[in-house]
Structures are given as structure tokens and as C-alpha cells.
Design brief:
alpha/beta; Rossmann fold; seven-stranded parallel beta sheet
Length: about 250
């Protein structure tokens, strides 16, 4: 079994990924800024910061695989993605480790600033000299639920999403960690492409919570790209668990 370092191990993906890696018998180190993170038994916590590089080399030294899933879409997105990719990929190269970077479908063609930052990070990883794999996935069910939870959401006429189960993406990463680096991997999309209206209606039916959708023009930039579906991967419906099934499991 391998020694695997996970950045972002306490996030939405990391909380599912780390236990699955442990179940496969791997030695798992989680790089985190938290002084006393809550981690599963048998996990090795390593204090560090991907943005500054503090503790990164020490955490990755001797590792076979690094899964870089640390992200910050709301604050310091570009700094976290670009500086993080630079420090983590350099440390992976020095350690001779396979670097797996978690990205998002459409970052190479979408103008949403966070996606632009992910695309820049992908290029840093590819040019780093490390053995690398990039996996792009569509939006997690958790994110769609969070978007609709506020009671109101801005939409364009043709806005759609392809929600995917975070556990299924974690399983794909676990598989990839056991294989040689493959560069840009095939996209990993959810099983359905659904309009935002249908997503909101299914959520209302199951949870009883309504979201008011405010129609706005798809005028340039990110809104136009969402309307055009540049974040979708309809030819890569790899996931199995549907939006309805995920919501039903959450309310049980």
C-alpha cells in the first residue's frame, strides 16, 4: 500500500476521500492549517499551508502519491489555487510522488473567476515536472444544495447543472492513486443534466423548501458560459447517484 498525502482533507471531498483511502490500507497524511483537526483514526495529521509552502515539503517527503484537493472558492481563490499548485507540485516533484489534482469540468473554457483560477493551477501542475494527473468533475450535489438553500437564486434561461456524488468522485481518485500518472483524465460527470428549475423543484418536493429563481439575461462572462453549458460533460455521465436519490438520503 502507498503513503498518500491529501490536501483539503477536511473539506467536502476530503471528508469522504480520506476514510476510503484508509479502508484500502493506505498510509494517509492530511495536510491542514488547523492546529487540532478532527481526523479519522489512523490518519496522520501534518500542519502546513499550501499558499505559503509552510510544512508542505515535510508532509510530502517520502510519499508515493499526493492528492491536491485544497481549495478556497470564496476567499483567496486565485492565491490558493495558483500558489497552492506551485508549492504542492514542486514538493511532489522533489519527493518523486504522483500528483493528483482535483479540478472542475469546463475550467479551460469558462469565464467564472474561480474556474479561471483552477485552469491556471492545472497549467502549473502540467508544467511542474512532477508525474501528474488532473481529474475534472462536475458540481457536487452538496454545492447545488448549498446554492439553492438561500431561498433565492439568480438564473439564466438555459442554466443547467450535472450534479455528481462526492463519494463517487472520491472512489475514482482512489482508483487513480493506484495507477501511473495519466495527465488529463476523462471528465467525471453526474448521471443527469438538469435545468435549474427542475433541480429546485425536486428539492422543494423532497425537502419542502422552496427557492425563488430570478431570471436574468445571459449577458457576457460567467453567466453566458453557464447558460451555454460550458461547465457540463454530457458525454461523460460516469456517476450513478441522482439528485433525487441524494436528496432523499439526506432527509431520511
Amino acid at each position: 500500500m502507498a503513503a498518500i498525502v491529501v490536501t483539503g482533507g477536511t473539506g467536502t471531498l476530503g471528508r469522504v476521500l480520506v476514510p476510503e483511502l484508509l479502508d484500502q490500507g493506505h498510509e494517509v497524511r492530511v495536510l491542514t492549517r488547523q492546529a487540532e483537526p478532527r481526523l479519522p483514526d489512523r490518519t496522520i495529521g501534518r500542519r502546513g499551508d499550501v499558499r505559503t509552502g509552510e510544512g508542505v515539503d515535510a508532509a510530502i517527503d517520502g510519499a508515493h502519491v499526493v492528492i491536491h484537493a485544497a481549495s478556497s472558492p470564496r476567499r483567496h481563490a486565485r492565491e490558493t489555487e495558483e500558489a497552492g499548485a506551485r508549492t504542492v507540485s514542486a514538493a511532489a516533484r522533489r519527493a518523486g510522488a504522483h500528483l493528483l489534482y482535483m479540478s472542475i469540468v469546463g475550467v479551460d473554457r469558462h469565464r467564472f473567476p474561480y474556474y479561471r483560477a483552477k485552469w491556471a493551477a492545472e497549467r502549473i501542475v502540467a508544467d511542474s515536472g512532477a508525474d501528474w494527473t488532473v481529474l475534472r468533475a462536475t458540481q457536487f450535489h452538496d454545492l447545488i444544495d448549498q446554492m439553492l438553500r438561500g431561498g433565492m437564486f439568480i438564473r439564466t434561461r438555459h442554466m443547467r447543472f450535472q450534479p455528481v456524488d462526492v463519494g463517487e468522485v472520491a472512489s475514482r481518485l482512489v482508483e487513480m492513486a493506484a495507477r501511473p500518472a495519466q495527465g488529463l483524465a476523462p471528465d467525471f460527470g453526474g448521471p443527469e443534466v438538469l435545468g435549474i428549475g427542475e433541480l429546485a423543484e425536486v428539492r422543494r418536493t423532497i425537502t419542502g423548501r422552496r427557492t425563488r429563481l430570478v431570471l436574468v439575461p445571459a449577458l457576457g462572462g460567467a453567466l453566458a458560459d453557464y447558460d451555454a453549458g460550458r461547465h457540463l460533460a454530457p458525454d461523460h455521465r460516469c456517476g450513478v447517484r441522482t439528485w433525487r436519490e441524494w436528496l432523499a438520503a439526506r432527509v431520511r
